[in-house]
Amino acid sequence: MDDLSSLPMMVVADADGEVFEHPNLRMMGASGRFHRPPMPEEIVPMPYGADLYVLPDRHPVGIDPATGRTEIVHSFEGRPVFAVSAFLPPAYTSLLWSAFIRDHGAPHLPLYAYTCLGWREGSFVAAGVRVDPDPRQDLHNFPEGEPENRSARKAVLKYPQNRLIKHLAHCCITYRCPAARNLFLGRYEAPLPTSRTCNAACVGCISLQDGTCVPSTQDRISFSPTPEEVAEVAVGHLDKVPDGVVSFGQGCEGEPLTEGDLLHAAIKMIRERTTAGTINLNTNGSRPDILKRLFAAGLDSVRISLNSARRELYNRYFRPSGYTFEDVIRSMALGNDMGKFVSVNYFVFPGLTDEPAEADAFEKILKKTGIHMIQWRNLNIDPDMYMDSLDWDGTKDAMGIKPLIKRIHKRFPMVRFGYFNPALG
Q1: What is d(CA 114, CA 99) in angstroms, rounded to the nearest whole number?
Q2: CA atoms of 58 and 103, how far apart (whole Å)
Q3: Residue 375: pLDDT band by 50, 70, 90 thresholds?
């Protein structure tokens, strides 16, 4: 980048959490373990609904526009300062991580995505891109006064025996889960969590951690609902919501394929009562044999999670138990073979996702499986924790997330891009 002075100002925070711009240094981002300034086309106004996070024991890295040298800032005007990042709202993909140097012994960061942040002309900016125009989880699209909370409480009273409704009401009221809120607002996509267990031990699992590294961001469901409880939620949603979607596989549960018999019975029950809407499954794709049964029962679409298209990096993150990377690929191909809609939930990690070797491996999977959609979703994890767990340091030749998206669009023009599970008409 030639004109460094045109970059946004670097943003820092003091020990009291006061956030301010550095008067001399400019914004830097991180791609893997390497720091670089963002390109002009990577910078967007910070979206409404984004959050700011101060990163304790991590010192920001900026660039001096006069000399082109990077600087680690430990203090400003006698005050210790720390890095600040943006947590982008749903539908946005991070293009660069926040650039910082971690103190020795610093605790791991909570399970969020830490996007590069700057300040320009009186406003925050971030390194991100909107990949899905769907407004279903836009914060400004939720009504004031929280009518969904009232609807949730009414639903609990109306269906006192349905434990799943009670669980989802808790997700709506306590955690402000956008999917649960939309259920009780009677629109878009409704969640159907079912599984207490998992056959993977993902490093960044958001519903279950052993407490030694980072806390989980939400509680995992503590019971297995009955098919009737599931169908009661699903049918009620699909029958009243135009182009409605219901999805097994949520952040507050384990792996739904471990509840194959329950899902099979629930899907059959739903389809006996309504032909409306889309039944979707978010999954790790570990059991193609079970997935085949679910498709036959009436499952319409599947979204399969992938942090990397390379077996060794996949295994180090997912830490699978009783299944293989090849099983996941078979599940992707199975959906296409059976005429079902297949998405890949591709965990974006700038520096790894856009590494040439990763792009080549991912394109091989696209060719082999006939995937219909890529959901470019941010990986919520401490960047250093992730790279350490993969034993991966990366290279400096990452192409950038936006160029990667353009490359795949050019080579696979029929593949849809987005962030959310689509309704299938």
Answers
A1: 9
A2: 6
A3: very high
pLDDT digits (tens, 9 = 90+) for 320-340: 999 999 999 999 999 999 999
Q: Encode pLDDT of 177-198 as tens digits.
A: 999 999 999 999 999 999 999 9
- Same domain, yes or no, for 112 and 156? no
Judge contact between 310 and 351, C-beta under 8 A.
no
Report the C-alpha gap between 5 and 127 in whole angstroms: 17
Task: Tell me the per-residue pLDDT of 102-128, one tens digit each, with 9 for 90 and over.
Answer: 999 999 999 999 999 999 999 999 999
Among 120, 254, 235, 204, smallest CA distance to 377 is for 204
Share of the chain above pLDDT 90, in %: 93
Task: State which of 113, 130, 147 marks the end of a domain.
Answer: 130
Contact between 421 and 343 under an 8 Å Cβ cutoff? The reply is yes
Do 146 and 290 fall within a single domain?
yes
- The reported pLDDT for the residue numbered 217 is 62
Q: Contact, 97 vs 114, CB < 8 A? A: yes
Do both 88 and 159 map to the same domain? Answer: no
- Length, in residues, of the chain: 425
Same domain, 110 and 153: no
Domain span at residue 343 reads 139-418
Instruction: Give the pair of three-digit tokens for residue 45.
Output: 């106004």
| Residue recorded with tokens 């059959």 | 268
Structural domain includes residue 424: no
Max Cα-Cα span within the chain: 69
Indicate if 84 and 185 belong to the same structural domain.
no
The pLDDT score that the predictor gives to residue 333 is 98
Give yes or no for residue 215 having a pLDDT over 70.
Answer: no
Number of structural domains found in the chain: 2
pLDDT of residue 279: 99
User: What average pLDDT does this structure show over 392-396?
Assistant: 88
Do 84 and 163 fall within a single domain? no
Q: Based on the domain organization, do 163 and 300 belong to the same domain?
A: yes
CA distance 121 to 8: 8
Angle at 215 (CA atoms; ends 213, 218), nearest 5 degrees: 150
Checking if the pLDDT of 380 tops 80, the result is yes
Could you tell me if residue 425 is inside a domain? no
Between 205 and 167, the more confident residue is 167
Residue 423 inside a domain? The answer is: no
282 three-class SS: strand
Query: What's the CATH code of the domain at 331?
Result: 3.20.20.70
Q: Can you name the residues that pair with 154 across neighbouring β-strands?
A: none
Q: Which two tokens stand for residue 15?
A: 């020990």
Do 200 and 291 reside in the same domain of the chain? yes
Pairing mode, strands 341-348 and 301-306: parallel
